[in-house]
Amino acid sequence: MTTKVTIDRFADREQLSLAAADALASVGTDAIRSRGRFVVALAGGHTPRRLYETLTKPEYRPKLDWGRAEFFWGDERCVAPDHEDSNYRMAREILLEPLRINPAKIHRMQAERPDLEAAADDYAAEIAACYDVTTNAPPPRFDLVLLGLGEDGHTASLFPYTRALVVTDRWIVANELIELSINRMTMTFPLINRARTIFFLVPGSAKGHALANAFGDSNDIARYPSRGVHPRGGQVRWFIDGDAAARLTT
Length: 250
Ligand code: 6PG
Known about the structure:
Layout (H helix, E strand, L loop, with lengths): L3 E7 L2 H23 L2 E5 L5 H8 L13 E5 L1 E3 L9 H10 L19 H15 L13 E4 L24 E6 L4 E6 L1 H4 L4 E6 L5 H7 L20 E7 L9
Parallel strand pairs: 1-9, 2-3, 2-5, 5-8, 8-9
Antiparallel strand pairs: 4-7, 6-7
């Protein structure tokens, strides 16, 4: 099975975010029409903020039946849910509360727990329950996974040369950035690569080097983790802006 890849270049972060909002509404509406619901994994960091703000605007909000959406996260920092660095807090404040999403449909990674591996296993079990399967089953298919791209080429919390990159038998793991002495919780490639659709949101010149390597010749996933994202039978849509694209030769 092949992976469909598209690259759309936009003038700037704002135009990128507007296009991604339309595309998300379209993917979500298709999912609801086909399967009765829309299961999405949100990205963290700074980039998705404008996308999330856009989705709550009066002209965008009606584009999707938000009551049929289930919200998960692709990764989380090991901080309390009200911490300023929390990916959950960011999405809750900018997207989920303004859209009045039913808390039962918001599935937060409990990455603040001292036993991070147990928390990761519990999150995988929560995903499994949402699909009425067990975690021994093949990974379920998210309708959409939102991803960013770090300047070092990481995506979600799949950082270069970290153990999470080679996990094949789990959907969610703890991942330690030894040199930075920080821990994260993250989706693994087996789960990400079952997604029907993946959006990479990559604006800004700071991402130029990582983006060029993402499309480069090397298949060195350890060095460039975003290259490990190729959902068989799914599609990857890159949303990039002119600044990020400056180093691309294509
Ligand atoms: C996180 C994200 C991470 C992010 C990239 C890009 O928890 O930070 O999941 O993978 O997408 O680091 O971050 P920015 O959007 O802040 O540039």
